[in-house]
Design brief:
By secondary structure, the chain is α+β, with helices and mostly antiparallel strands. 19% of the residues lie in helices and 42% in strands. This is VOC domain-containing protein.
C-alpha cells in the first residue's frame, strides 16, 4: 500500500459474536481473531484486499472509521492541523513496526492514520 491508500475499516459493534455472524453471512467476509489481537476479530472481504476489524463500540467510536496509510503520521498530523483538523487520538504503537492515530477533519469526521507494517 502507498501513502493515501485506505488500508483498514473498523466497525464499532456491541456484540462481537453477533456482528461476526451478521457480516460473514451478509457479505461472505472471513472473520477471525489473530494471535496478539484477541478480542478484536479482523475481517477480510472476498477480494482478499479489503479488510478491517470489528471493535467494541464506545464513547468517541460510534461510526465506522476508515484508516489511511501515510508515510509519516507525525508529518500528516502536522499538515492536517495546519489545514484545520484536530487530533482525537495521538500516535500510538500497534506493533513494533506500526503505529496509528486519529484526526478529526474540519467537518467533524474521524479519520484513522496508519504508518508501518503489520
Amino acid at each position: 500500500m502507498a501513502h493515501g491508500d485506505i488500508t483498514h475499516i473498523d466497525i464499532p459493534v456491541s456484540d462481537l459474536a453477533k456482528a461476526s455472524e451478521f457480516y460473514s453471512g451478509l457479505f461472505g467476509w472471513k472473520i477471525a481473531e489473530i494471535e496478539g489481537f484477541e478480542g478484536y476479530p479482523m475481517w477480510s472481504a472476498p477480494n482478499g484486499i479489503s479488510g478491517g476489524g470489528l471493535a467494541p463500540r464506545g464513547d468517541g467510536f460510534t461510526q465506522p472509521r476508515s484508516y489511511v496509510e501515510v508515510d509519516s503520521i507525525d508529518d500528516t498530523v502536522a499538515k492536517a492541523e495546519a489545514a484545520g483538523a484536530t487530533v482525537a487520538m495521538a500516535k500510538a504503537p500497534i506493533t513494533d513496526a506500526s503505529w496509528w492515530a486519529v484526526i478529526v477533519d474540519p467537518d467533524g469526521n474521524h479519520i484513522g492514520l496508519f504508518e508501518g507494517s503489520v
